[in-house]
Write a structure and sequence with these properties.
The protein is mainly alpha-helical. The protein contains 11 helices and no strands. Helix 3 packs antiparallel against helix 8, helix 6 packs across helix 8 and helix 7 runs antiparallel to helix 8.
């Protein structure tokens, strides 16, 4: 038993070191005074100031957050609708086709997805004149395409585990379909909807491959800018930017855990 416990602790420790040691090194070197990221020159906040004076990175970050917010919001609406259909409709050929369409973006390589969307946008521009070139709108459409698949899977899983007798009781009391969904079903699946939005926001913000295919001149997202800079060598400004993003994520995780513990404690006190 002791050997097993020692093995598990060692394995867990090595796993955490493998995952978080690069992040810790990145955070430390973001405070490096030297321009060479591999040579320590002392502690300094120099590169944080340079980061906020870099208009290219700031503009790319704002564009990425804008695209991620819009894409996640649209994907949540469409994905929730698709998940509801997949969960509530009986077996049929149409349901099988829809399930296949939803599952395809989950297993399709991003290169294939990006190339197919690029060809689609080019064909649409030739046939209808829209979209006029590639830019922010095409990136949003592309991100919604694959993000809604993740939302649909999450919402469908939550709906399949939900107690349908609550909806039946609401219908017995005279609730209309629209009222039933917005007042009963939606609040019950809201944790899944929020999870789907957060996952979609993260996937959109992190996407590089698909955005590289469907973006145009002047519409470089933050991952594209970082990738172009890293190809020429890691810049201390990139370390500073990554450190700020890690800090934001860490604060969000801590806040979410605190809120969950607070709700658990309130429920326990009520009981």
């Amino acid at each position: 038993m002791k050997r097993r416990s020692l093995f598990l602790n060692t394995t867990a420790t090595m796993g955490f070191i493998f995952l978080y040691a690069p992040m810790i090194a990145l955070v430390v070197y973001s405070f490096n005074k030297s321009k060479l990221v591999t040579v320590w020159g002392g502690w300094s906040l120099k590169w944080y100031g340079e980061l906020f004076r870099n208009d290219q990175i700031i503009d790319a970050a704002l564009l990425s957050f804008k695209i991620a917010f819009i894409s996640a919001s649209v994907a949540v609406v469409l994905g929730t609708m698709a998940g509801f259909v997949l969960s509530r409709f009986g077996r049929s050929r149409g349901k099988m086709i829809l399930s296949g369409w939803i599952s395809a973006p989950l297993v399709m390589p991003e290169v294939i997805t990006g190339l197919s969307l690029l060809l689609l946008f080019v064909a649409m521009e030739s046939a209808f004149g829209w979209p006029a070139g590639r830019g922010t709108s095409t990136i949003i459409i592309a991100h919604v395409t694959f993000c809604m698949a993740y939302v649909a899977v999450i919402v469908q899983s939550r709906l399949s585990q939900m107690d349908e007798t609550l909806e039946e009781a609401a219908m017995d009391l005279g609730a209309k379909p629209s009222s039933l969904f917005f007042l009963v079903t939606l609040p019950l699946i809201m944790p899944a909807v929020i999870s789907g939005w957060l996952l979609s926001f993260t996937l959109s913000l992190d996407d590089l491959v698909i955005a590289s295919f469907v973006s145009g001149p002047g519409n470089s997202t933050l991952p594209m800018v970082i990738f172009s800079k890293v190809r020429l060598g890691v810049s201390p400004e990139v370390n500073a930017l990554a450190t700020l993003m890690i800090a934001v994520v860490a604060i969000g995780v801590v806040a979410a855990m605190w809120q969950m513990r607070r709700q658990t404690k309130l429920l326990a006190d009520q009981e």
